Amino acid sequence: MSKHYSSDNECILTGGLWALIAALVVGFFSWIFVDFWPTAIVVFAVVLLAGLMLAFFMCKARTVARGGVDIRAVDLARAEMGIAAPDNAADVAEAEDNAEAEMEAAAEAEAVAKADAAKAKADAAKKSKAKKAKAKAEVKAAAHDHEGDAGEAKPELLNEARGGKADDLKKIKGVGPKLEKELHAAGVFHFDQIASWTAEEIRWADQHLVSFKGRVSRDNWVEQATELAK
Hints:
- By secondary structure, this protein is mainly alpha-helical.
- It folds into 2 domains: about 1-80; about 140-230, no CATH class.
- The protein is about 75% helix and about 0% strand.
């Protein structure tokens, strides 16, 4: 550090000397050409001050640059001789490594948790879909496969709604969302289907089509469907 300090002083003194010489020369010529001492003195002072400031900042900049080179040189020499860095640097490096490892572990754990959650959601959706399909198949099988007892006749049932769009069967009194799903599963999608049922088909529907037996005739589904089908 004392070496840098001495070098700074030498640099500033040298720069100051050159600034003084330049100020004297410029001031002298100013006096000759202007022939007015106050002007020459002002010019001398301005040039001297500018030169001193320029020398000061240039010397400081050179010192900073030399300091950076010296630091790099010390690090290079330390590495070549196999001398370890100071303990605080080693601690910082170790802390950075540990933090990076913890972040990687946390990211991996988060990815695993997301994958498990997605798998559980997919499994639940698959089970729910299978359960609904099974229930629908059971209802449809019960409705289609039953031949009917004496005095009963199975009405015409469809595999799907005509034109891909079913009527809103919930408009019939006594039909809620649950019964509408059962009717769809059994093959009943339209008002005109219900409106066309005969007495024998109504008896069959009362016994085999919906969860609550007797509802078709009790709530006059055929009459309601006839009005709604118009």
